[in-house]
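Human:
Class, as today's exercise, you are to examine the entry below, and be ready to discuss the fold:
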Amino acid sequence: MMEVLRPFLININGRIYRRNIIKEEHYEEEQEDLSYMRPQDSEDCDAEETCDSHCIEQTDKGFRCTIDVPSVLYKYIIGKKGDTRRRLESDTKTSISIPKQGMEGQIVITGPQRAAVSSAVTRVELLVESFRRKQPITHFLSLPLNNPKIQEGFLGFKEKVLEHCSQDHGVEESIFQNPAKLHLTLGILVLLSETEVRKACHHLQECQNVIRDITEGKPLPVEVTGIEYMNDDPSMVDVLYAKVNMKDSSDKLQVIADRLVEHFVSAGMMVREWDGVKLHGTVMNTLFRKDSTVEDLGGPGRQTNEREAFDARNILKMFSTYHFGEFELNGVQLSQRYSTDCTGYYTSAGIISFS
């Protein structure tokens, strides 16, 4: 019942589309069910219909529109043995030209009527957004916490926990965060081409002046003190977080985090997951137990792998006010997942400073 009352929504350039529930199957040249976005018959289309996000130009043979789509998503528009593209073309009375797999380029939609081309553009965009959500996360906005003082405090925390709590269920060295990659995740992105990475960097730079107005052009003095968890049972914990707060008790850091996410959500580059950004830095995560290369991006809702929880009751009792350290935070970066720079932190695709 909840799925009916709260359907899955897709935002395409400010327009909200409802996506009806369909049976999910593994896609190996998978064919998407397009019935949820079937248009009205072409003869009923508004002759003045336009596409808000793309320019539909008139040609000698009709109308034409181009769409930038990452090559990794071409196969979803083509479908198994070309079925999806043929169905789109048949339903909208258009022709859809797609670059060869592995080649970056533009999808070109042509048709005899403007409304038909506009309808095809919308359906391709819906298809792209639907399958984009199934792609793995590639980048995320991060606030680095890998300051030497915080790393030292974290290593001290790790040593003491292993000394006093290693007999507790599930507590072992492998579930601790890599100190060089301590961070706060503000939001996650799926960037599937260099063009999209550049676009994300551009949006980050657009936030520069707004962020500096909040920081008054100065680094933010923050302290990392205390730990907490987010599930209901402290004896069965998957992720343990360090608390991060402004030393002057202001809300500047929270405002910056929320403003950045709001900007990227409005630009259609990020999906809103929470009402506000939760400012926590992961220090222990059971995902690390199975695979040391797994990366925590800060949200318990994204942790779907089966894992062995640990008993955090003694840790919470003994280290609830543990002081990891203080430092001046001076920037936010667009970090590339599964990467490492010369400092051991994530490779930066773009950065803005607070000062």
About this structure: The first strand starts at residue 8 and ends at 12. Residues 224 and 319 are 13 Å apart (CA to CA). The two ends are 50 Å apart (CA to CA). The chain has a mean pLDDT of 85.
